[in-house]
Amino acid sequence: MKKTKLIQVLEIFEYKELRKLRKFLNSPYFNTNTQILSLFDYYSRLELNNAAVEDNSKIWGIIKAKGPFNEVRFRKYQSDLTKLIVRFIANEDFQSDKFAFDLHSIRAVRKKNIKPLLNGLIKNIEDPKQKKHKYSPDFLLFKIQLEKERYLIEHRGNRTETSNLPTILNNLDQYYFSEKFKFATDLNSRTKLVKRETNITLINEILSLVNESPELLSPIGQIYRLVYLTQVSNNEDINFYSELENLLTKEGNKIDKAEVNSIYTSLINFCIGKINNGQQEFLQKLFSIYKSLIALDLILENNKMTRVKYRNITVTALRQGESDWAEKFAIEYGEFLPKKIKENQLRFQLGLIYFYKKEFHKVIEVIRDYEFRDLFDNLKTKVTLIQTYFELNEYDALDSLLRSLRTYITRHKELDSGRRSNYKNLIKIMSQLIQIIPGDKKKINKIKTTLSEMKGIAVNRTWIEEKIAELEK
């Protein structure tokens, strides 16, 4: 099916959302053009049935447009439908944002000067039942805007009282500082990836100020300050990380979910950096973070699981010795992977999990006869099979696979020289390993030397060393 712009847009919507969108388009308040509604019906049916798009001139007849086919008018119908879809999306988002809806209600009523409604609207927002808001910079901004409306309604004409201006200024400070630290942490993460130095204006002055006057920070501002300090304080970063952990334990359930996700992402990056530097005790902390995200129902993004997160969590659990947990996770959350990669990734991870569990025949059953679409998935799967055949003493199958791998990496010219070298080293070391008779010290010492001289190898070096050590016994 040809993917027109409208079809690409509509295929993103769930069936229930399409029904709701149709009601929106059928409302005379938003749309009075029946051809636009008919055009929506046509395209939505195509998307649901995966049918082919007909010529525009035929669609013209289907939507019962008046007169002979007119390309300019037809494109205008498409353009108007697209604009209405955007308006629907914006309207749905606005309706779901209680902060924005309440604030705009007060602002609109104030502009109309409908005084009988104003007090009721403000009291409703300030009702204790309505005040259970989660910590977030957005809520701080809402408080600023709400107090501004209160000032315009109650105090602007009276210059003999301080009114609520101190509250507005305090909220402004808290909002600015929390956003400053939040975006500074994001900028630091990005500059590390691109290896570029940046200068964040006033950040050191703000740090000094809030150190002297902690009350200037809201709870979410305190958290982002600690996240920032874990990134920039080389000597005290672990202390700041511990302080951050404690604060999250205490205040975590009061923080807005979107903010929690951002904060935990920073913690994950911190732990990964420490693990990469050899501080393996952070592996347990990383695993705990992933489990916390699952418990908080924050592991999915728009009800989808990303391939990178799926793999990282599984591998972290395996490295922690939690193979049963990893298997349960892989099966349960594999259902949330994009359809195109779901089976690939599930098989790939299960193969790895069964290898860690030493259920080697299951490894072969899951991955041997399956052709993985991704080049690197294919290569990693071959590595797992090489290890599996060695563990099972299936040396004929292993030798055949090594030859196949050599042909495979030769054929795929897109492999960079570093990866190609690593796979060649794997083939070389495994070819030598299967030729060694246990106890043959001369050959064992030779393979140890060969391994030590290899800069990189496409398999866990520790596993190779363990297999060599077993031959020495």
How is this structure best summarized?
This protein is an all-alpha fold and 473 residues long.
Structure description:
The chain has 473 residues and is mainly α. Among the domains are: 5-96, no CATH class; 374-473, no CATH class. 72% of the residues lie in helices and 0% in strands. It has 23 helices and no strands. The protein has helices at residues 5-10, 15-25, 34-49, 56-62, 71-96, 98-112, 115-126, 137-155, 165-194, 203-212, 219-232, 237-251, 257-276, 282-295, 307-319, 323-334, 339-356, 360-367, 375-391, 395-411, 417-433, 441-453, 461-472. Helix 2 (15-25) runs antiparallel to helix 3, helix 16 (323-334) runs antiparallel to helix 17 and helix 18 (360-367) runs antiparallel to helix 19 (375-391). The longest helix is centred in the middle third of the chain and has 30 residues, at 165-194. The chain starts with a helix and ends with a helix. 25% of the residues are buried. The mean pLDDT is 90.
